[in-house]
Amino acid sequence: MPRKFFKRYLPSADKVREVKALHLFGDALFHPSLWHLHRRSAAGGVAVGLFCGLIPGPLQMLGAAIAAVVLRVNFPVALATTLYTNPITIVPLYLLAYEIGSFALGAAGGGHAAPPPDWQFARPLASAQALGEWAIGLGPALALGVFLLACILSATGYVVVRLLWSAYLRRQWTLRKRRRHARGAR
């Protein structure tokens, strides 16, 4: 099921190969390990996506793409996993990162974070700029916290995908064994 589920929603290498703009990258982007779907590649793709999802700005997918190519993990899974961050989730994640960074730095990390600016949907560019200035104002505690949170999320995602995939396979093996045993008892 995990493989069937992922393959249903993720593009194949052949589909991506049809995009003319990607020919710029040559064969590096079409290495078989980037498109093969198994426990290690899917878990690695999730880990890369969770780590790169906390990269500020629009560089998340670029970072995930580069890391997936370098680490030879599933490319589409890595890109899709970065989508957990968006304008709604990034503020709570950065507040959590600030708290983690403050805890890691101890007394030198500073106090509690200033509340984030209100998002004005009528002025998205001004709101994004205000949010960026707020994040920069949080300083070293935020920088360390984002890195630590990315590491925690990445490691957790890797382990959870490996465990869930293994549990699913064990269950399928058990069901297959029962069916064979039932057929043999007839």
Description:
With 186 residues, the chain is mostly helical. The protein has eight helices and no strands. The protein has helices at residues 2-9, 13-17, 39-52, 60-71, 75-81, 90-105, 124-137, 139-185. Helix 3 packs antiparallel against helix 8 (139-185). The longest helix is centred in the last third of the chain and has 47 residues, at 139-185. The mean pLDDT is 84.
Return residue spans where pLDDT drops below 50 for at least 5 consecutive residues.
none
The percent range for strand residues is under 5%
Radius of gyration: 21 Å
Overall shape? globular
Helical percentage: 55-70%
Secondary structure tally, helices: 8
Give the helices and strands as they follow along the chain: HHHHHHHH
Number of strands: 0
Major beta sheet, specifics? none
What is this entry, summarized?
The chain is mainly alpha-helical.
